[in-house]
Design a protein that fits this description.
This protein is an alpha+beta fold and about 190 residues long. The protein has a single domain, classed as Nucleoside Triphosphate Pyrophosphohydrolase, CATH 3.90.79. The chain contains four helices and eleven strands. Strands 3, 4, 5, 6, 7, 10 and 11 form a seven-stranded mixed sheet that branches. A two-stranded antiparallel ribbon has the order 1-2. A two-stranded antiparallel sheet has the order 8-9. The longest helix is centred in the C-terminal third of the chain and has 14 residues.
Length: about 190
């Protein structure tokens, strides 16, 4: 999604309160919607991506299988499927696990403040990486993913989403949605 694309602005209950460009959201730290998808393999491993080194947001760091912003008027599930197709060329079914209100995260002069809908997907397909958005992908075990959680190579939002994934699934790949209530926004200072 380009910085000039329009997203819905939301309040602390994820109700639409307006629209703005992604650039305005990132420069002013406005609350907007995003998606994150973690793709599990049938052997229990997970597909993760490394962000492009040319990206303005968390360049060269590892994150979930795919992440992205929800366009104005677009639903979360549609955005999750679109991002999987755009970034990885994959089209598996997605299952919503949780909705999380992330605290503001700063990177290279930008401020992300998002309501993120976390999805799981199952696929053994080989990804077709979008070289503009990603440096590459890797298939990792749960132990390898846990090791990344303790370091600095994983984006801060990915750490929060992976922790939520483990809570929702008790650490197992699953197609069952979580019954957890959405988390409310944390204080703005970070």
């Amino acid at each position: 999604m380009g910085k000039d694309e329009v997203v819905d602005l939301v309040d602390g209950r994820d109700r639409k309160v307006g629209e703005a460009t992604l650039e305005k959201c990132l420069s002013e730290g406005l609350l907007h919607r995003a998606v994150a998808v973690l793709v599990a393999r049938s052997d229990g491993r997970f597909l993760i991506q490394v962000r492009s080194r040319k990206d303005h947001w968390q360049p060269g760091r590892w994150t979930l299988s795919c992440t992205g912003h929800v366009r104005a008027g677009e639903g979360y599930a549609h955005a999750a499927r679109r991002e999987l197709a755009e970034e990885l060329g994959l089209s598996p079914a997605v299952t919503q696990l949780a909705k999380v209100f992330l605290p503001k995260i700063r990177s290279r002069g930008s401020v992300e403040w998002e309501v993120v809908s976390l999805y799981s997907a199952m696929s053994d397909e080989s990804p077709r990486v979008d070289p503009v958005e990603l440096e590459g992908v890797r298939v990792v075990t749960r132990a390898e993913l846990d090791a990344l959680m303790g370091g600095r190579r994983l984006t801060p939002d990915a750490k929060m989403m992976i922790a939520e994934y483990w809570r929702a699934n008790r650490g197992r790949p699953s197609s069952r949605p979580s019954r957890r209530a959405p988390r409310r926004p944390a204080p703005a200072s970070r």
